[in-house]
Specification:
cytoplasm, Nucleotidyltransferase, domain 5, DNA recombination, alpha/beta, 168 residues, endonuclease, DNA-binding
Amino acid sequence: MKVLGIDPGLAATGLALVNGTSTQVFGYSFGTITTPPESPLTDRLIHIYDRIREVAEAERPDLMVVEDIFSLGKYPKSGITLGKVTGAILVAGRHGRIPVREVAVREVKKILTGNGAADKNQLERAVRQRLGREEAIRPSHASDAMALALIGLYRGDHYLRNGLDRIS
């Protein structure tokens, strides 16, 4: 199974692709999509959409796992912006006919570290351990995307059995 994990962000969206089974990783890659802050919002969203479509068409993943939207009470506008970015990503997945699943970050952290409140460093270390990788995965958006891709690999059969494009 090939899974594309995506950590949405307007300035930097993390991408990770993992290939394997529910118990073994055969290969992986990761990166980020960046957008310049001086560009209009719509241009930035189109850039993210286009890049996701390019990766989806080139790699043909079996499943796309996207971090679910969250909002911090202190920064409600950030949550709204994140929702716009996630919308562009979900549409890109749908246009590529890729089953899409949104997963809450707390669920990802709990599965990979055993602690739903783990910090970014703990999550990144857990991801590296599962990949057998010594080098840090940077930037953190790429590491978070890899965590989502691993969850998709581990739970992909369950997600796919429960319906395409089912979004929790």
